[in-house]
Specification:
Alpha-Beta Plaits, DHBP synthase, seven-stranded mixed beta sheet, eleven-stranded mixed beta sheet, 756 residues
């Protein structure tokens, strides 16, 4: 006879772990107890030593579906002569290392009950069990017990209480457990907040959507704005009111079978759509589909998601082909989570509001994923994935990394775990800054992390940087933007070696005070050295040049041809008034509001404007996305990009390429051919330069990061070329290559650098 104390850490609370342990112990005829504690789950079992070993083996090999075990420690202790196995109350400890489960889509068992007329929860919009439902968005503290969630105000009825206390029941200790009698309720109000009485709120919502209304629907991590995705007028009204002119809108369909009427869904994409996380997945449009063309104009893909809450499923029983389900906010503001807040901030956008009275503690947008070479590439990591940690190959200090300004996330580290927050968004206003600060406070509390280091971007005007610099009594560590990008890729891939880092994006503050964005670095998790970059080009008008790609096209033309650019026969020059062009050229000549940039993103903008695709953009990356979408896949040609040496730096000059593009335009070459040759030029450039660096350094490991690597053509073709040449290539999968993953790199670099 033996007695073992077993401590299990990971995502083991709120995922059915204790009833799993209870059933396993009873079946093995072991005595003792299981309890949640602030580190995870604590077990003591007493019985035959061989049965205890088998018991531990079963935990390791067959845990509950939603559990994620990160460590199991076993100590043999004196016998206690227990006569049974019990589930004890949670044990609160001073040290907290328990992990919280992300919010999980409704499971098949609950979905079956939702539509079973004989079930007592038939049609109940908040049905859930231990295997599904809200977690992260309703928790305010740990251990994950009901009293520490937004369900604390709902007292369970006797029937729900019996389920909650029965270890053999699927709802044993399911903290959001509720029913029609005792749980939250939904209600429908008009634009002034007056409740529509005497109607079924879900059926009335369906009816209003069919009539073309815009409905704000309170969901799991915030509000969605919904309209019928086949109704042109409704989609246009939503765009106009939300101030979202052309950026694609996400759409939700009842299931993959229905979605295949308007989208081509690969098997791996179906797997992502139907996974417990239920992210938005970028899928190809089907020819001749019935979805409004205003949902995703000039885009080959739809952002598709399936219903992940019971309320979504009930609404989609209205036999819609699809509903637009876009975040409930004005453009660039955080998503709404409170009823009163939504009624105020979404007034004038939504005609009606489908509300409920279960509080959301932390706003969490939908995650976005696309498939690249049959592997997922995270575009936005949020609901369903947060706060699941990134496991690292090293132990880190406790660090708070504040991220960038665009697509902001924060990162907290503890031991070998890095916790990236949910998507916070653009830190450009007071509302976003408040959300940023709320997220820091919430995560530091539930993870019990007291940062000894605060990492930040070097850009002096970022609100995240200003926040870091305002923190009193903390050790601060500034991290260069593109070094952080490469380090985030290395950390995700558990690589500590030096690599050739290719960091391509729209902008990042450089060590020389200029705007970087087309960089090749020799980097590891401690230090970096810049070895190559695109030639600096003026950015006339600063931020205005980002919104108006024609400015970058003109800047490149002036750099390539000088004053003789006016002799070129280009439609771009006829589209831009001569007086406007003269002003821009004078700004460039006199260096007035024309900072220098090496940005690869701005080079994409320039080419998109030159070939006539996009002179003005309505959302970030639009010109580059449309340039990629036009590629003629059978074109294998490329343009020259010259390499110029400046001391130890290699400068990539695209000016020969610009001249050749102008020649092709004048010959009447199709935009798709020019786009293909442009993309192929970048592949050729970086492949050749990596070969040159390998000869000089012997290095054979390459890491990609930065928002430009959301371009599937560039990512797949450059990866393939380098692997053919014998390089080992590291790319992103768990976290985004864009600035949404930057904080991870900041945190790792700060922890390593602090040892200097």
């Amino acid at each position: 006879m033996s007695r073992a104390r077993i401590q299990i850490t990971g995502i083991v609370q709120g995922v059915g772990f204790r009833p799993f342990i209870y059933q396993l112990a009873i079946g093995s005829r072991l005595c003792g107890f299981v309890a949640n504690n602030s580190s995870g789950v604590e077990i003591e079992v007493e019985g035959d030593e061989e049965k205890i070993e088998d018991f531990i083996g079963e935990i390791k090999s067959n845990p509950p579906p939603l559990a994620r075990i990160t460590s199991i420690t076993v100590d043999f202790i004196p016998l206690n002569s227990d006569s049974s196995f019990v589930i004890k109350e949670s044990i609160v400890q001073e040290e907290r290392t328990a992990l919280i489960s992300p919010d999980i889509a409704i499971c098949s068992d609950c979905l079956r009950e939702l539509f079973d007329p004989s079930d007592r929860r038939y049609g109940y919009p908040f049905i859930n069990c231990t295997n599904c439902g809200p977690r992260y968005t309703i928790i305010k503290d740990i251990p994950y017990d009901r009293k520490f969630t937004s369900m604390d105000s709902f007292k369970m009825c006797p029937a729900c209480q019996r389920e909650y206390e029965d270890p053999s029941n699927r709802r044993f200790h399911a903290q959001p457990n509720a029913c029609w009698e005792c749980g939250p309720r939904v209600f429908l109000v008009d634009g002034k907040g007056n409740e529509l009485v005497g109607v079924d709120p879900v059926k009335e919502t369906i009816s209003l959507l069919k009539k073309g209304a815009v409905i704000a629907i309170k969901g799991l991590g915030g509000f969605h704005l919904a309209v019928d995705a086949t109704n042109d007028e409704a989609v246009l009204a939503l765009r106009r009111r939300k101030l979202r002119e052309e950026k694609p809108l996400a759409i939700m369909s009842a299931d993959c079978r229905k979605a295949e009427e308007f989208a081509v869904i690969e098997p791996e994409e179906r797997g992502l759509l139907e996974s417990p996380q239920h992210p938005i997945v970028l899928v190809r449009k089907r020819e001749g589909n019935r979805i409004s063309p205003y949902v995703a104009p000039r885009n080959p893909c739809f952002g598709l998601l399936l219903p992940y809450t019971p309320l979504h499923h009930l609404i989609l029983q209205g036999d819609f082909l699809a509903l637009v389900m876009t975040s409930g906010n004005l453009s660039e503001e955080p998503i709404c989570i409170y009823n009163k807040e939504a009624l105020e901030r979404l007034a004038g956008i939504a005609d009606y509001f489908l509300l409920h009275n279960r509080d959301i503690y932390l706003r969490t947008d939908d995650s976005v994923v696309r498939l690249v070479e049959r592997k997922p590439l995270m575009v936005r990591r949020s609901r369903g994935y947060v706060p699941q940690p990134i496991l690292l190959p090293m132990e880190l200090k406790q660090v708070l990394a504040c991220g960038a300004e665009a697509k902001n996330t924060i990162c907290l580290t503890k031991g070998n775990r890095a916790f990236l927050s949910q998507h916070i968004g653009e830190l450009e206003n007071l509302e976003s800054l408040s959300f940023f600060e709320e997220s820091i406070a919430h995560l530091t509390r539930i993870l019990q992390i007291e940062p000894e280091l605060i990492a930040y971007d070097l850009h002096p005007d970022y609100l995240s940087t200003k926040y870091a610099l305002s923190c009193q009594g903390k050790r601060l560590y500034g991290v260069q933007h593109h070094h952080a990008h490469i380090a985030s890729c290395l950390a995700e891939n558990r690589v500590e070696d030096s690599v050739l880092g290719i960091a391509l994006d729209g902008s990042g503050y450089g060590l020389d005070g200029k705007i970087w964005g087309g960089e090749v670095l020799v980097a590891d998790l401690r230090r970096t050295r810049r070895v190559g970059h695109f030639r600096y080009i003026p950015l006339p008008g600063g931020a205005a040049a980002v919104r108006e790609p024609w400015r970058m096209a003109l800047s490149y033309l002036y750099a390539a041809y000088g004053a003789e650019y006016t002799d070129l026969k280009l439609s771009l020059l006829s589209r831009i008034p001569e007086r406007t062009r003269q002003i821009i050229v004078k700004m460039i000549q006199q260096e007035i509001n024309s900072p220098l940039t090496s940005s690869c993103g701005r080079l994409f903008d320039a080419v998109a404007a030159l070939v006539g695709l996009r002179d003005y953009i309505r959302f970030e990356g639009q010109a580059a996305m449309e340039l990629e979408a036009t590629i003629s896949s059978e074109e294998e040609g490329y343009y020259p990009i010259s390499l110029e040496q400046e001391g130890e730096l290699t400068i990539f000059s695209p000016l020969p390429m610009i001249r050749r593009i102008v020649e092709d335009i004048n010959k009447g070459e199709l935009p798709g051919v020019i786009s293909a040759k442009f993309h192929n030029s970048l592949v050729q450039l970086f492949a050749d330069f990596c070969l040159k660096l390998r000869e000089e350094t012997g290095m054979e490991k390459v890491a990609f990061s930065g928002g430009v690597f959301q371009n599937m053509y560039l990512l797949t073709h450059l990866t393939s070329r380098l692997e053919q040449l014998g390089f080992q290539v590291y790319t992103h999968s768990q976290i985004p290559p864009n600035d949404g993953g930057l904080a991870l790199g900041q945190a790792v670099i700060a922890s390593y650098g602090a040892d200097k």
